[in-house]
Design a protein that fits this description.
heterodimer, A: 159 residues, alpha/beta, Rossmann fold, 6-stranded mixed beta sheet, 31% helix, B: 517 residues, Beta-Lactamase, Heat Shock Protein 90, 4 domains, 5-stranded antiparallel beta sheet, 5-stranded mixed beta sheet, 17 strands, 50% helix, binds guanosine-5'-diphosphate, binds magnesium ion
Chain lengths: 159, 517
């Protein structure tokens, strides 16, 4: 079985851990627990074993440690659809990724789509489509688009 | 060979001491050696010769040439570990150490910091929403204020339109009545018809005055809404004021066959500094109301002036007010809708507000079927100097009157001529400026709304040409903004129509006083 490493990156508290847990273990918790360093989970999509690195977010204390990205075959850029700044930050995060491991396949997860105060600007959507990224409005809470998003990334990686 | 074994032994002891685990892979990523304590961290299937990717997840995607530090990775045992990849001569050594102590500290710190930042973000967002909401409110408020301003200016416009002709109706009926009094000293049949005519005239006058007071109530109500009612105290003859009120309302009580009693005690001094027209308005309203709601018995107006304070009460033996209606009675428009009596239902609201502005409180007590008593007490500072004799100094002075309404102009001119004032009449501001250029005047009486050149424009022109002749504005508008505008343009005083000729004389005396300083 092929094994592929992918990394969940994005600002803190956007739902990287939650998306991973929803996808891998089908569990969701409302409680916020900061991820320190990295948690590694595995899931199987088709004939690919996906190794999901849930990386600590970019936050007030530290940037993303790009060492964790080495060896990744694809990237999930995660933003919080209710916090505009986390979406604006995605382009900075993408630069970090690119500098370390080059242009790998990317999908964008705009998470927390179950919440009502959605604040993603048209500019952001334009930017994503200019980059050629697939964008998914996901919810770790109700599960919408989570599998689809991972599926899309795997397809990009394997093609 | 011996040396190498020794080195390995030393290494192993060192690693044990530091709780380090390790494994090595060759360039094809197959395991060449590993430490036994690797399984403490849950990597328990590692075998020499096995592909490392099959057994250690974090090695997936990595190669044997890259040096790398992964400071904190959750191991399969759950313990966070620090991982170091050290390539050397085609082989890769991977060191794994316990990082749980460090991770715990870091977790606490990071959790706090992140939660804090989330709170800040949330606060920021809420503040944004708040300021948006308050902006919305502000603009709504502005719209409302604008609407209320438009309403006020509409009401004042309409009342102006009414007030001007009413003023001349009232003034002329007065003159005709005086003529009739003279006639009544002649032949008996003329006298009889004159008497009848004078009755008719009195009816015309009563109706006009009533109409005027309705218009004024409407205007005042508009001003209540925009906080535009002001109290302007001046020397007031209280005895005369009460006489006036009695004279005005006596016919009303007579027509209903009820007794109108006056109980006035003003001590020796009865000149007080009060807004006489506002006080008069309140009294007429309260007494008028009492008469309106009393069908038999009496209405008593009691006034006491003592210690610079005026106490008034109006008691009637009328219908009385039920306790629940007593609560509603102060609401604007209330009575008009509910009692079927004539009026706008604004009188009491306005009266109450005016009394408040004069520094008093309107108190209403009532018993159904027995009658009602309203009372209030307002400050009434005594006038120290004796008032100046009305016509003493005005006689012989030259006054320029700028007024486009011929009826009002004739009326004012007639009354002033009687007092010996030399009046020149012009129809607009431009003609007034011209007249002032040609000859000196002691005083200018100026209307605001005139064709060709308005009173405002004329004031401006006079200011420019440094003409110091005092200008008194006779305006149909009692809107505060209009007064303020005229004052900013340097008018000497501002009177609202219908103008009391006595007020004009008082102002003329003030002008003379100032000039003689
Ligand atoms: N309503 C809602 N809350 C979510 C969703 N995903 C994550 N959260 C919550 O957001 C917070 C941060 O999630 P987490 O996965 O720890 O974010 P990470 O820092 O990016 O790993 C937690 O309180 C989660 O319960 C979602 O899709 N909908
Ligand atoms: Mg996390």
């Amino acid at each position: 079985m092929k094994k592929k490493k992918i990394c969940m990156v994005g600002d803190f508290s956007v739902g990287k851990t939650s998306l991973t847990q929803t996808f891998v273990n089908n569990v969701f918790s409302d409680k916020y627990l900061t991820t320190i360093g990295v948690k590694i989970d595995t899931a199987i999509i088709g004939d690919t074993k996906l190794i999901v690195w849930d990386v600590a977010g970019r936050d007030s204390l530290s940037p993303i440690n790009s060492s964790y990205l080495v060896g990744a075959a694809g990237i999930v850029l995660v933003g919080d659809g209710t916090r505009e700044n986390t979406i604006d930050d995605l382009s900075i995060i993408w630069d970090t990724v690119k500098n370390r491991i080059g242009e790998v396949p990317v999908v964008v997860a705009l998470n927390k789509a179950d919440l009502y105060d959605w604040s993603v600007s048209d500019q952001s959507y334009t930017f994503f489509s200019e980059q050629g990224w697939d964008v998914f409005s996901t919810s770790a809470k109700d599960g919408r688009n989570v599998e689809e998003m991972f599926q899309a990334l795997v397809e990009k990686i394997t093609n | 060979m011996e040396e190498r074994r020794l080195q390995q032994q030393i290494n192993e002891q060192l690693f044990k001491k530091l709780q380090l685990a390790y494994f090595c892979v060759d360039k094809s990523m197959r395991v060449t050696c590993f430490s036994k304590n690797l399984r403490n961290y849950g990597y328990d299937s590692v075998l020499v010769g096995a592909e490392i990717e099959e057994h250690v997840d974090f090695m997936i995607g990595l190669d044997a040439q890259t040096e790398l530090d992964l400071p904190m990775v959750e191991s399969p045992s759950g313990t966070p570990v620090a991982v170091s990849l050290l390539p050397s001569s085609g082989e890769l050594t991977v060191l794994i150490s316990d990082a749980s102590g460090h991770a715990e500290q870091r977790q606490l710190l990071q959790q706090k910091a992140n939660e804090n930042e989330l709170l800040l973000e949330q606060q920021h967002k809420l503040m944004g929403q708040l300021s948006l909401a308050s902006k919305e409110l502000e603009s709504k408020n502005q719209q409302l204020e604008e609407a209320s301003r438009l309403q006020t200016s509409f009401i004042s416009g309409v009342s102006h339109e009414f007030r001007t002709p009413l003023t001349s109706i009232i003034g002329y009926t007065n003159l005709v009545k005086e003529d009739l009094l003279l006639v009544s000293e002649s032949e008996p049949e003329v006298k009889a018809s004159a008497q009848q005519n004078s009755e008719h005239l009195r009816a015309v006058q009563r109706s006009s005055k009533h109409l005027l007071s309705l218009v004024e109530n409407l205007l005042d109500h508009g001003k209540l809404d925009s906080n535009e009612i002001f109290i302007r105290p001046k020397s007031t003859d209280l005895a005369e004021l009460f006489d006036d009120v009695a004279l005005l309302l006596k016919p009303l009580s007579d027509s209903k066959n009820i007794e109108f009693k006056l109980d006035i005690e003003l001590t020796n001094s009865f000149m007080a500094v009060m807004d006489d027209s506002r006080l008069r308005q309140c009294l007429i309203n309260l007494v008028g109301n009492a008469i309106k709601f009393t069908d038999q018995g009496s209405v008593t107006l009691t006034a006491r002036l003592a210690d610079e304070s005026l106490t008034i009460s109006v008691a009637d033996t009328g219908l009385g007010i039920s306790p629940e209606n007593l609560k509603k009675i102060r609401l604007p428009f209330w009575q008009a809708a509910d009692t079927g009596k004539a009026g706008t239902g604004l009188g009491l609201t306005i009266t109450e507000r005016i009394i408040e502005l004069m520094g008093g409180d309107l108190d209403i007590s009532s018993e159904l079927g027995k009658g009602t008593c309203v009372s209030f007490e307002v400050p009434a500072p005594m006038l120290l100097e004796t008032p100046i004799g009305e016509c003493s100094t005005v006689s012989g002075s030259k006054v320029l009157l700028a007024e486009d309404d011929a009826d009002i102009a004739d009326l004012v001119a007639m009354m002033m001529s009687e007092a010996g004032v030399d009046v020149t009449h012009v129809e607009n501001g431009a003609l007034a400026i011209e007249a002032l250029r040609d000859q000196p005047f002691d005083l200018v009486l100026m209307d605001i709304n005139m064709p060709v050149m308005t009173g405002y424009e004329a004031l401006e022109k006079l200011q420019e040409s440094k003409n110091k002749t005092p200008v008194v504005i006779l305006s149909a508008s009692s809107i505060e903004a209009d007064r303020a505008k005229a004052e900013s343009l340097g008018c000497f005083d501002y009177l609202v129509k219908p103008v009391d000729i006595g007020d004009i004389f008082q102002i003329m005396n003030r002008v003379v006083d100032q000039e003689s300083l």
